[in-house]
Structures are given as structure tokens and as C-alpha cells.
Amino acid sequence: MSNHKSISPSTQKLEEIQRRVPIVGDKAITDIINGIQVNKDIILYRKNRGWLGNLISQLDGSDNNRQILLDGNLIAGQEALYQWVLEITESLKISQTALQITQTSLLEARNVIRNQQTRWNKQDNVINQLSERFTIIHQQVDKLTERVDKVETEVRVEKDYKRIVSNWTGGKTYTKLPFALQIILLAREVFSSYVLMDELERKNKNEQNFYRELLVNDILTHNSNRQQLPETTFFGLSDLLDQSWAAMTNDDRELTAGLLEIRSIPQHRLVNIPHLFVIGTTLELATLPEQARPNKPAQCAIALCHNQIDTISRTTDAREFITAVVEETANDCLAMLP
Fold first, then answer.
1. Helix (H, G, I), strand (E, B) or coil at 139
2. Residue 202 in contact with residue 208, Cβ under 8 Å?
3. Which helix (H) or strand (E) holds 24?
4. Angle, nearest 10°, between helix axes 74-91 and 9-20?
5. Distance between CA 98 and CA 119 in Å, rounded?
6. 3-state DSSP call for residue 135?
């Protein structure tokens, strides 16, 4: 009988034994087949005890796929089982009885394997469908989370804005300070709060800045009630600022000068805030000792702005001044973000 093209050392060992004990081939093949356990469509290989069982157990060292088969791995062991049986039946002298037993058992195992593979394929399809559904659900959850976060942000922004503005209009904040400086500090507080998150989101989406316009209108309404700034006529910017610092106590003057100082602001930010530059410079000059202080600090601040920053109008009205302060403050707060 011709040998298989490639015979493993373990099969060669069986051949040597068979030359001396001919029935060893039948015993080996039937033990292998009987070791295949078909139970609820799960195929395992059960190694028999005894001398021949131990010999077969030793075969797993000659080939990794056989070890997989002996360990009961169905899919990887299927090919190993086929090759193993083919190798033994071609290399050893096997009786017709053993071949018939082998054929019957292998057909049964093949059918079981096919049925199991079909079930696994169906399970794979179900798993893939579930995975796709979970992906869709995950995307929907992400969208819902994004919406919830957006709503929470909007609520927080509105809450911060209303609290800050109501405290100011109710006379709880920035008391005893000139109106022009109150609105500057108010704008800084608003755009340093959670409102800045709304500003950032709108900037990324190139949307209109809602709270800037709202703050300008709220300040104008409060100004109409208090009649602090002329509403229908123009006035000199330097006159407004010089009157403001002159009406303050020394402590309040130094406090606001420290809050609105411009020396620590980088040049690339200063060029975008000419009004804030003028206000901060005016307060800085106003806090100098009387003998060193200019007669009109605001006029000097405007001149410095023209030389170092940009041209700025020397006259303004209530809406123009308030709008400039709010816009510059909001832009500068955004510029400070990393």
C-alpha cells in the first residue's frame, strides 16, 4: 500500500508497531473515531485511556493542529481530523470494517459540523445586526447627550446673565462708582461668566452674538431710568472719563485702575480694544500723584491711543459708547481663552 506524500513521525511510529502487530491500525483508527463525541451538535475529541490511548495522546506533540483537535476546538480541529484520518488510513493497513466504521462516523461528524456551522453563521448575522442597532442607538444617545448638554448650557448661561444684570440693576453691585465705569465692570463680569461658553459656541458656528445685543439694550434701558448718559446727543469721550474719575474716591480710583489696567495686556489684544485702552490709561494717569498727574488724563489717554493703538473718535453717544465697551470686552474675554 502506497504511503501518503507527507507522513508525520507519529504515524511512522504506528507503522513500525503495525509491522509487528498488524491489528494496531484498526485499533488506532477506531479509537480515534470512537473518541469523537457527538453530543447536542458539539463535537469533542475524548482521548481514551490505556496504552494505545496514551500513544495517541503523544501524537499531539507532532503537530499543532492535532493538539487543537485534542483540545476540542471544533472549527480548527475539523481540518486536522480529516488530515489525520486520511494519513492513517493511507499509511496503515486498515480493514474494511474499520473503514466502514470510520466512514459512518465521519459522515455523522461532518453533518453535525455543517449544522453547527450554519447555526454559528446565523448567530453571526444576528450579532452583526445587533451590533448595527447598538451603533445606531449609540449615535442617538450621543445626539441626545449633546442636546441635553446644550440645553443645560443654555439654562446656565441665562441664569448667570439674569443674576449678574439683576444684581446690578437692583443696586447690589458696583455701587458708588460712576455709571461709565459701572458698565465696563458689568460687561467684564458678564463675559467672564458662563455666558462666555455661549460666546465660544456661537463663534465656532459663526452665529450672531445674542447676549451682546441683549446686554447693550439692558444697559440702555437702565440708563433711561437713571439718566446717567445723554441719550439723544453726542458728548465728548474725554469729558465723560475725566468727570468719572474725578467723582471717585482715591480708594475706588485705585481699585478700578487695578481692575481695568492695560499694562499687562499683550499688544495683539490691545489693538482690538481701543476704548478699553483709553479707559484703563485714563485711570492709570488719574492715580498718579497730583503733581505728576496731567490736567486732563482722558485727553492724554486718547492721544496715546492714536499713537500706539488706533484712531478713536473723540465724541460719542450713549449707544455707541455702550456698544463699543460691550463688544470690546466680549472679544477680549474670548481672546484670553487658550
1. helix
2. yes
3. helix 24-34
4. 40
5. 31
6. helix
Give dist(CA 234, CA 13) in Å, integer: 112
Q: How many CB atoms lie within 10 A of CB 175?
A: 8
- Name the H helices within 227-286: 237-246, 250-259, 267-270, 274-286
Cα separation, 266 vs 198, in Å, equals 25
If DSSP codes are grouped into helix, strand and coil, which group holds residue 260? coil
Please provide residue 39's backbone torsions phi and psi, each rounded to the nearest 5 degrees.
-140, 110
CA–CA gap between residue 13 and residue 8 (Å, rounded): 9
Site of grid cell 439692558 = 218
CA–CA gap between residue 90 and residue 4 (Å, rounded)? 6
Mean pLDDT by 10 residues, the chain (338 residues): 56 69 65 59 53 54 51 52 64 63 69 73 79 78 73 86 94 92 93 89 81 94 82 88 93 92 90 94 93 92 92 91 95 88
Measured distance CA(8)–CA(54) in Å, rounded: 17
Report d(CA 297, CA 252) in Å as an integer.
17
Maximum CA extent, the chain: 126
DSSP-derived 3-state class of residue 11: helix
Location of C-alpha cell 446717567: 228
Distant-in-sequence, close-in-space partners of 248: CB < 8 Å, separation ≥ 6: 177, 178, 181, 256
